[in-house]
Amino acid sequence: MPKILRRPGILWGAHYAEIEKPAGPPFPRPINHTHDSSVPIGGRYILLFGAEYPAVFGNPVPSSLNAALPETSRKMLSMRIGERVNIMAETGRVEGPDAKAQQAGMMPANCIQLGTYNTSWQDEEDMLAWYMQGRLPALRVMPGCVRTRTLVSASGWAKHGVLYEFSSLEIRNKNFDRLKDKPAEVKAWGDQVIPRLVHAPTSPNLACRIWPAMTS
User: Fold this and answer.
1) How does DSSP assign 128-185, residue by residue?
2) pLDDT tens, residue order, the chain (216 aa)
3) Where are the domains of the chain?
4) Cα dihedral sign, 77-213-90-130
5) Angle at 104 between CA 79 and CA 200, to 5 degrees
6) Structurally, what CATH architecture does the domain formed by 18-42+86-211 represent?
């Protein structure tokens, strides 16, 4: 990671470990997942890098960059199972109440929830409207929310993504699921949109940062 961070155009990097899902539904609505067996199923760890713009990851592309690493680094990377890669750009962003306490610039917060998914083009306008008019405004005022970003893909299986950021796992678990109830029209809208999304295997992924160390 330190070598990648020294590359021109790279702004930040963060490594996360997925939180084991509790017994019972971990999310407020049923989630559809792809049945395409060619899509890698990894999700235990999440490595994120931010750049000035997506083209930074195009020269070299991630696979070429990995192939040029020293043998010891390539051996370490070969231990990964089910690796899934996306290069994405932000399409929307809101800052939450805890954004002012964030000391790491635009690097994602201590706790994240990352959803990566596809939907039919006919449903994309409804999805966009729900995020921009319903979900993101609600997260702007949700206690413990640091930031929420909607994403669109330049490369990878998932065309769309959403990155929720929270100051801690505990406050996420306390407040996030309540979004489904307030206001009622947003819940009804979400009940229409979410079943139309087809997520990557294991998505959404709930995870806590392991590098750099989480801040208090």
Assistant:
1) HHHIIIIIHHHHHTSTTEEEEEEEEEEESS-SEEEEEEES-HHHHHHHGGGGGTSSHH
2) 888 999 999 999 999 999 976 555 556 678 999 999 999 999 999 999 999 999 999 999 999 999 998 999 999 999 999 999 999 999 999 999 999 888 778 999 999 999 999 999 999 999 999 999 999 999 999 999 999 999 999 999 999 999 999 999 999 999 987 776 677 878 788 889 999 999 999 999 999 999 999 987
3) 18-42+86-211
4) positive
5) 40
6) 2-Layer Sandwich (3.30)
